[in-house]
């Protein structure tokens, strides 16, 4: 069955979603489709007053509903109902996700939306299984570590996989007994708004999940600074992550989870399955047109296999079918905006001037919409932007190495440490290299997350702080209280 849809046929949700209803306002933000540049809608922008209304509604909903103090099984039941509804409404959610983003409808339907449902279910199950700890003390005392939710969590997400990121934030925060006010990217608000509608239909008390639309400097900053936000969970660029951390420090020393950018290496040794490595490497940099935080954008190949790897990657890159996100035969989506496309071009131009050789791509596609060609560069100097900066586009660099030491040194990025890939059939070498790679995740003979949500995700160094997914994400949404009783 074809998943393609007519972009004019969608009823787009408008307004902020607060207290179980849409709140309209002057429509000042224009939302466009990157697939062909058409204007989709105008939506309102939440200023500090609207953010205050959303946070107050969440706080009142927490108090009235007893969400934090109810039998945890009751939270599990509601969250499972939400996951069921997400699956039942997958077609609508996926279309709302696809239309303003770079997510092809096929991947949004069978991937992102289903992953969001899985994440809600996965975290629901922690609610009545994670226990507080009794600690060893003398017989005359009893000590234990109790945990409690923070209250209202402020969540902010990026535009690259909006519905999956909403699942990351919402699942653990709600399961742990908090309310959530979420600000999606102003470029991709629709699927998150519909998710909030579904949450109310699933039985989540109105106000426990509110969505405010707006930009980072107005809405995002007001949300982080709000005195009733107990914890901040952020996904976006390192630049914005720094601003969020400063803001959270200035306004209450709030705990922050920061999922930020990366410049991840993929290291291929000569003993690896080169065909597999080429497929994995190409898939990660072409998926979402390279607009993925974990995109393995720096390939390091052992000298004897570098040319073969290069040839295989170029063949795969030339086979893509660019097209609009609403056409399910599309294998290669657009760049989110013209601004982001210009940034990619500028990085390429500066790197070329510095000596980088463009083996394939290096320009936009000659077609309507913001499409950039899959690009492979070699011989780029270490200090050139294509080696140092997160491009967030379909741009791969290839370097060679001659020893394990050289591979480990070149793999290390001066600031980022999000993820890394390793291709080898030598188990001992893999185990040695895993220790040497400076990253929050290492994939061996594969590249990219699976649907094993038990594996936490999060970066080292400037790639972030704290974890999303896994048990860590649930625990990060509760704070502990040490109790000691003299008997
Ligand atoms: P941005 O940092 O530009 O924006 C992310 C979100 O933060 C948006 O909702 C944005 O609002 C908001 N924002 C921006 N500035 C502030 C601020 N000062 N205070 C509060 N909120 C703010 O990132 P992009 O949306 O361009 O997303 C791409 C980035 O996200 C890449 O760097 C990518 O690596 C990273 N990312 C990381 C992931 C991870 O798990 N590590 C996963 C996915 C993406 P608005 O845009 O509406 O103005």
From TrEMBL:
Keyword RNA-binding: no
InterPro entries on file: Ald_DH/histidinol_DH, Ald_DH_C, Ald_DH_CS_GLU, Ald_DH_N, Aldehyde_DH_dom
SUPFAM superfamilies (alphabetical): ALDH-like
Gene3D superfamilies, per database record: Aldehyde Dehydrogenase, Chain A, domain 1 (3.40.605.10), Aldehyde Dehydrogenase, Chain A, domain 2 (3.40.309.10)
Keywords tagged on the record: Oxidoreductase
One Gene Ontology MF term: aldehyde dehydrogenase (NAD+) activity
Pfam families the record matches: Aldedh (PF00171)
Superkingdom of this protein's organism: Bacteria
Aldehyde dehydrogenase domain segment(s): 28-483
UniProt-listed Enzyme Commission number(s): 1.2.1.3
Active site per database record: 259
Family per similarity comment: Belongs to the aldehyde dehydrogenase family.
PANTHER family the UniProt entry points to: ALDEHYDE DEHYDROGENASE-RELATED
The protein's name: Aldehyde dehydrogenase (NAD+)
């Amino acid at each position: 069955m074809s998943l393609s849809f007519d972009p004019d046929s969608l009823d787009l949700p408008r307004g902020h979603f607060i207290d179980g209803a849409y709140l309209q306002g002057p429509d000042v933000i224009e939302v466009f489709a990157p697939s062909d540049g058409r204007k989709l809608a105008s939506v309102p922008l939440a200023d500090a007053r609207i953010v205050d209304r959303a946070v107050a509604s969440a706080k009142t909903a927490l108090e009235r509903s007893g969400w934090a103090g109810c039998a945890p099984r009751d939270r599990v039941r509601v969250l499972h109902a939400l996951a069921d509804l997400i699956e039942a409404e997958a077609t609508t959610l996926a279309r709302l996700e696809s239309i303003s983003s770079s997510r092809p409808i096929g991947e949004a339907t069978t991937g992102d939306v289903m992953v969001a449902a899985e994440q809600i279910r996965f975290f629901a199950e922690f609610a009545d299984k994670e226990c507080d700890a009794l600690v060893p003390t003398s017989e005359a005392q009893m000590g234990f570590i109790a945990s409690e939710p923070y209250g209202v969590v402020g969540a902010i997400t990026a535009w690259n996989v909006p519905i999956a990121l909403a699942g990351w934030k919402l699942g653990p925060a709600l399961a742990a007994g908090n309310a959530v006010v979420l600000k999606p990217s102003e470029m991709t608000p629709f699927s998150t708004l519909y998710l909030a509608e579904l949450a109310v239909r699933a039985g989540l008390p109105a106000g426990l999940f509110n969505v405010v639309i707006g930009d980072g400097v107005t809405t995002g900053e007001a949300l982080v600074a709000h005195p009733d936000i107990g914890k901040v969970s952020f996904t976006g660029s390192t630049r914005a992550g720094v601003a969020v951390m400063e803001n959270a420090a200035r306004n209450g020393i709030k705990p922050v989870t920061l999922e930020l950018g990366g410049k991840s290496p993929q290291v291929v040794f000569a003993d690896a399955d080169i065909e597999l490595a080429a497929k994995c490497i190409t898939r990660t940099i072409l998926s979402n047109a390279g607009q993925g935080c974990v995109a393995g954008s720096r390939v390091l190949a052992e000298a004897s296999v570098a040319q073969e790897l290069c040839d295989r990657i170029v063949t795969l890159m030339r086979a893509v079918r660019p097209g609009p996100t609403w056409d399910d035969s599309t294998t290669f989506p657009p760049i989110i905006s013209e601004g982001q496309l210009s940034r990619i071009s500028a990085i390429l131009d500066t790197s070329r001037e510095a000596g980088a050789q463009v083996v394939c791509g290096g320009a936009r596609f000659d077609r309507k919409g913001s499409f950039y060609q899959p690009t492979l560069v070699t011989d780029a100097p270490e200090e050139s932007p294509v080696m140092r900066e997160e491009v967030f586009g379909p741009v791969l660099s290839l370097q060679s190495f001659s020893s394990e030491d050289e591979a480990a040194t070149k793999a290390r990025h001066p600031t980022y440490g999000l993820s890394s890939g390793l291709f080898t059939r030598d188990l001992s070498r893999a185990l040695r290299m895993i220790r040497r790679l400076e990253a929050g995740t290492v994939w061996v003979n594969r590249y990219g997350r699976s649907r094993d949500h038990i594996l936490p995700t999060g970066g080292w160094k400037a790639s972030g702080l704290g974890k999303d997914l896994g048990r860590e994400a649930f625990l990060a949404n509760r704070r502990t209280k040490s109790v000691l009783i003299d008997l």
